[in-house]
Amino acid sequence: MNKNIFLDYQSTTPTDPQVFMAMLPYFTDKFSNPASSNPSGIEMNAEIEECRSVLARAINCQPNEILFTSGATESINTAIKGIFEFANSGHVVTLKSEHSAVLNACRHLEKKGVAVTYLDVEENGLVNLQKLSEAITANTKLVAVMQVNNEIGVIQPIEEIGKICLQKNVPLFVDAAQSFGKMEIDVGKLNISMLAVSGHKVYAPKGVGALYVSKKIKDKIVPLLHGGGQEEGLRSGTLNVPGIVGLAKATQIAIEQMQTEQSRILSLRNLLLKLIQEKVSDVVVNGDLQNRIAGNLNLSFRNVSGDVLVNRLENVVVSRGSACNSSKNQGSHVLKAIGLPDELADSAIRISIGRFTTEEEIIQAAKIISSTVNTIRKISIIA
Question: Alpha carbon 250 to chain centroid distance?
Fold first, then answer.
């Protein structure tokens, strides 16, 4: 059987071999608990702190503003719920196109009496800054906006949103699961108060992530987990040392290779779109094509079921959208948020390109996708 061409990098990434090798000693030789007070534990704690510094340098913050978590979902819940557990009431502004972790955390808060404004986005997937500004009230305790959308890849204007939040003295939380390691992030310049990171989106293993919390608001967050008081009391529990080491190594690689890697991935994305459009008619690109992360394409093929297409593609792995919603058999709330007609939303697939994608794979994938789309259309006409 031929090896699959993996084009679902926004759902997850393979662990980079360099990351894997960096992690190995921490499963067998360096296995001490970093919270232990013995010499081995102290040494391990020092290594954890170096990892913390690596992430801090990547987003230009202080090391003690980085908390290690199990992933973006925990980071998101800690940030959003933690603010309102402290405040007891208030108002949050977010977007209808956010990740389900953000939306479901906000729905949970609504049950507790917190007011939530879910803003529409424009047809290109971007938020209207004027509407966002007008949505913020004197009772607003948080604005939550993801930097890069996990389905259509559009990049929200975080710098402008940060300025609005600064003017109105409201903390800004950013889900950076899809942007961290792919674009420059300076939390000070962008006026970000909290930011979530996921390891398995940047070639680190699953089960590790991080949350940046500005020292300005650290005392205004109630932790989700209570226990031994690790991570400055905001995230108790024994640290996932191998995972943290892997996340730090993956971060180093991503920062060092960012410009060349993203440029190469963008070229591959443009080639894929060009090759598909040459062979297939009625192809619609969903979301703004310019304000978009390099590796993402979200395409609709008229008169083709997205589910049928994904299942019929031989040796090409793509998705219908967010991996977190794939088992729920629901239409994409992101495509609905941008006003995409049901016909086009039902025919949409997400293609995401990554570090280990080759030009040969892109050429082959374009042939397979184009041929499969055209075959499905012919069958539909005959039927």
Answer: 15
Rounded-to-integer distance, Cα 188 and Cα 190, Å: 5
Strand 209-213: give its sheet, edge to edge.
66-69, 209-213, 194-198, 172-175, 140-144, 91-95, 115-119
Neighbours of 9 (CB within 10 A): 22
In terms of Cα–Cα distance, which of 284, 257, 148, 202 is closest to 9? Answer: 202
Given strand 296-301, what is the order of strands in its sheet? Answer: 283-285, 296-301, 348-352
51 catalytic residue (yes or no): no
Domains within the chain, CATH numbers bracketed: 5-13+258-382 (3.90.1150.10), 18-252 (3.40.640.10)
Residue among 51, 61, 165, 324 flagged as catalytic: 324
Tell the residue number behind the tokens 């591959």, with chain if given.
268
Evaluate the CA torsion angle 341, 342, 343, 347 in order and state its sign: positive
- pTM of structure: 0.95
pLDDT in tens, 279-312: 999 999 999 999 999 999 999 999 999 999 999 9
